[in-house]
Amino acid sequence: MLNYTFMQNAIFVSIFISILCPCIGVFLVLRRYSMIGDTLSHSSLAGITIGLLYHQNPILGAFVFTSICGALIEFLRIYFKKYTDLILTIVLSLSVGTAITIISSGKLHANADSFMFGSILTVTKFDMIMVLILSIISVISLILLYHQMIYIVYDEEAAKIAGVKVRLINYVFSILVASAISISIRIVGVLVLSSMISLPVATALQLEKGFKITLIFSIVFSVIDIMLGLFASYYLNVAPGGFTALLSVAVLILVLIGKKIYINVSKIHSDQNEIPC
């Protein structure tokens, strides 16, 4: 299996996905913006169709269009401060409408299905270069903005008072989300991409540790989910995105069960220690 070039390419991309997605996702989840990830993942489909329509790299098209949509969400927050869900509906309508219009026009002489469901056969050398460049830029940006983003996560208003350039950082973060989404499309697919951003973080949060520990375990769970999904989908001959999403849910359930058992065992042990001799 590992002798095949397409599997080597898929593993290369999957490593970057499993690291970058939870790094972005932990900030989205803690800010209660996980649905923004879902909206932008669907926005990437419009970028893909635009890229294919003009015979450009679809990943590049997804990155550009998703970045624009991310910036649009941040811009619309000025006018719809109390209606975040309405903003997402506007952007989702724009994106899905654009994608459906292009696909149904008959001018798209390429199949977009592999981007919707994910495919390990479609990862090219150029895609790998794009993934490498976008990942390096994203990780460097996260490192440089780490402390400011932590401040914004816990109290955005206090961050503004402290002099943090909240709006600028939010725009930059939107581009980082677009980057994570665009590099994940080939393997995971548009329809379940948001699960790779949110579910490993949701699993790590069950450990109830500090931010750094949560981030580390988010990456660990993401690596487990994506790598198992990739190898299992190869042998089962199914789309890697859907099966990876199922595995992510399964891992989350196992952690929840393990946590419940641990709490019950600890409670029993504590009760036994309290029994007088």
From TrEMBL:
It comes from [Clostridium] fimetarium. GO terms for cellular component: ATP-binding cassette (ABC) transporter complex. Its main location: membrane. The chain crosses the membrane at residues 6-30, 59-80, 86-105, 126-148, 168-193, 213-232, 238-257. InterPro entries: ABC_BtuC-like, ABC_TroCD. It comes from the Bacteria. Belongs to the ABC-3 integral membrane protein family. It is found in: Cell membrane; Membrane. The keyword Transferase does not apply. Gene3D superfamilies: ABC transporter involved in vitamin B12 uptake, BtuC. One of its GO terms (biological process) is response to zinc ion. The lineage of its organism: Bacteria, Bacillati, Bacillota, Clostridia, Lachnospirales. Signal peptide: none annotated. It is a multi-pass membrane protein. It holds the Pfam family ABC-3. This is Zinc transport system permease protein. The keyword Transport applies. Keywords: Membrane, Transmembrane, Transmembrane helix, Transport.
